[in-house]
């Protein structure tokens, strides 16, 4: 069963946070260059309610084990820096932590030979109170799933095809088929300094946040990810999504971190009913009340009583 390990408070509202995470080598690669991290990996003595609850996914790039080293170093540095920051401003603290992770990967790369340069993508989220803050570099993604219909990619891919789509030079469908879809234009470790995109979202009850590497979002479409993430507890959903990608012969490592925010402190390990189709109304699921057959009982009883009173009255008048 998932454990509610964190709460966020805001005037009149409180969210309990449920988290599940998994990273998998997949069925093609020899080693796993992805890395994941959540606040559950840290000592629970950290004042999470003050600093927020941090979770992240990194997807290493580079030859052999260098991508694996880069992603692990980025996650380690990100968490160490973020929770060592004394600021109360989450966006600034998260941006500084991502930039510190970039410096760590860049400096490690300098110590390697030129042909063994390192790099990694990074997407990270922090929930404090009812606010979700996302920071990203590269093409690992952050999604928000809300209600029956809303599926939003919060982060923006830093890749050749994504930039072409934003510039109107390519359609989203063409981008999915392009041979350059995995060519990223921004990553940690490429330069001494890096630009970090920061996004903020106000959370609502039962919102689900998904962070994932391109090994998942490149194989499983957004609608499927939303359905699984909402229908299962976060740890079960992470396993299900990765298994789904692997069963479709994913050619990359696959990683997912899922966080669900609930207003009520209740376990979410029991799968919820799958969301209804847009064309289905809620009332369509309510069984019709069976039609009652036979004569109504109350009107008959009233008629009999009235007739008895009339007979009694007539008898009284004739017997006087």
Describe, in plain words, how this protein is organized in 3D.
This protein has nine helices and eleven strands. It is α+β, with helices and mostly antiparallel strands and 320 residues long. It has a single domain (6-272), classed as 4-Layer Sandwich (Phosphatase 2c, domain 1). A six-stranded antiparallel beta sheet has the order 1-2-11-10-7-8. A five-stranded antiparallel beta sheet has the order 3-4-5-6-9. Helix 7 (222-231) packs antiparallel against helix 8 (234-247). The radius of gyration is 29 Å and the shape is globular. Mean pLDDT is 80; it is low at 1-12, 269-300 and 316-320.
Strand order in the sheet with the most strands: 1-2-11-10-7-8
Provide the low-confidence segments as ranges: 1-12, 269-300, 316-320
Largest sheet: number of strands, sense, barrel closure: 6 strands, antiparallel
Number of strands: 11
Number of structurally distinct domains: 1
- Going by CATH, what is the homologous superfamily? PPM-type phosphatase domain
What is CATH's topology name? Phosphatase 2c, domain 1
Rg from Cα: 29 Å
What is the class in the CATH system? Alpha Beta
Instruction: Name the overall outline.
Output: globular
Q: What percent of the residues sit in helical stretches (DSSP H or I)? A: 25-40%
**Number of helical segments with 4 or more residues:** 9
Structural class comes to alpha+beta
Q: If you average the pLDDT, what whole number results?
A: 80
Element order, helices and strands?
EEEHEHHEEEEHHEEHHHEH
Tell me the fraction of residues in β-strands, as a range: 15-25%
N-to-C span: 84 Å
């Amino acid at each position: 069963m998932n454990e509610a390990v964190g709460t966020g408070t805001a005037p009149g509202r409180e969210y309990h946070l449920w988290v599940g995470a998994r990273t998998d080598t997949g069925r093609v690669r020899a080693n796993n260059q992805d890395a994941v991290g959540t606040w559950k990996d840290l000592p629970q003595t950290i004042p999470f309610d003050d600093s927020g609850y941090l979770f992240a996914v990194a997807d290493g790039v580079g030859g052999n084990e260098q991508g694996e080293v880069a992603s692990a170093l980025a996650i380690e540095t990100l968490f160490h820096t973020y929770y060592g920051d004394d600021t109360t401003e989450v966006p600034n603290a998260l941006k500084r932590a991502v930039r510190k992770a970039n410096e760590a990967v860049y400096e490690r790369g300098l110590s390697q030979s030129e042909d063994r340069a390192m790099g990694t993508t990074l997407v990270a989220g922090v929930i404090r109170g009812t606010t979700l803050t996302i920071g990203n570099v590269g093409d690992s993604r952050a999604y928000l799933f809300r209600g029956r219909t809303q599926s939003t990619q919060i982060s923006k891919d830093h890749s050749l095809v994504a930039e072409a789509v934003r510039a109107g030079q390519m359609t989203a469908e063409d981008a999915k088929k392009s041979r350059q879809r995995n060519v990223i234009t921004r990553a940690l470790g490429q330069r001494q300094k890096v630009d970090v995109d920061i996004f903020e979202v106000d959370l609502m009850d039962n919102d689900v946040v998904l962070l994932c590497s391109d090994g998942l979002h490149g194989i499983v479409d957004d609608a499927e990810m939303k359905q699984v993430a909402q229908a299962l507890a976060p740890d079960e959903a992470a396993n299900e999504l990765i298994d789904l990608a692997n069963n479709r012969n994913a050619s990359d490592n696959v990683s997912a971190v899922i966080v669900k925010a609930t207003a009520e402190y209740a376990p979410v390990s029991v799968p919820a009913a799958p969301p209804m189709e847009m064309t289905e109304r809620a009332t369509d699921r309510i069984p019709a009340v069976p039609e009652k057959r036979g004569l109504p009982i109350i009107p008959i009883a009233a008629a009999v009583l009235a007739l008895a009173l009339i007979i009694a009255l007539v008898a009284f008048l004739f017997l006087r």
